Amino acid sequence: MKATRITCAFALAILAFPGLAPAQAPQGNTGAGASASLTLTPRQPEGPYYPTQKLADRDNDLTRVGHGVPAQGQVLVLSGRLVDERNTPIPSARIELWQTDHRGIYMHPGDSGTANRDRDFQFYGEASTDEAGRFDFKTILPGVYGSRPRHLHAKIVPQQGPVLTTQLYFRGDKRLSSDGIVRRLGPTIAALLLDPEQRSPNEVHAQVTFVLRGN
Ligand SMILES: [Fe+2]
pLDDT of 205-214, one tens digit each? Predict the structure, then answer.
C-alpha cells in the first residue's frame, strides 16, 4: 500500500478533532482465544451514497488520487483484521471503504454539494485481507453532514458467504446518542466504535476487527 506508517509517538494533543476521547485500547475482539465465540459485527444500512462511479484509483490510500496532491483533512490510518467467530483469519476478502471528504461531502450525484467536493480525495477504496486477515487503509477523518455522527462506510466481501455492510463511528462523538441508525444498535455499537490515537499533529491511528460468520 502507499500508506506510510508513522511509528514515532507524539504527545496526544487532540488538535484537529477536539471531540476525540483519549486514546483507549483497541476494541475488543482481538484478544479472544481461538475457542471463544466472538460477537458478530453488526450490520448497518448501506445508505444512499455508495459510489455510482468509482475512480480508476481505488486502492487503500484514499488521501490522494493517483500521484496528485494530498487531500485536505486529518489523516486516519485504519488497521483492521477480519476473522470468523472462532477468531480464525479470513484471507482474500475485499474490504470496501467509502466516506465523505473533510467537509462532509460525498462523491455522489445524490449529494447536493458534490460539485464542491475535495477532488484530491479518493472517496472510495479497497483493500484485500492477507493470510492473517489483516488489512489497512490510509484515509482522512470524514467530515460530518446533516445530523449524522462522523462515520465511515464499509462493505466486507468474503470469497465465500454473504457480504457484510456496516458503518464505523468514533468514540466520544456527541452526535452518536441522537442518531437513529446508531440507537437501533443498542450495546452492539461497541463493535463499531473506533478509538483514534493521535500519532502526529495531522495523523491519527485506529484499529477495528470485523467478525463474520464462518462457513
Ligand atoms: Fe454516510
Answer: 999 999 999 8
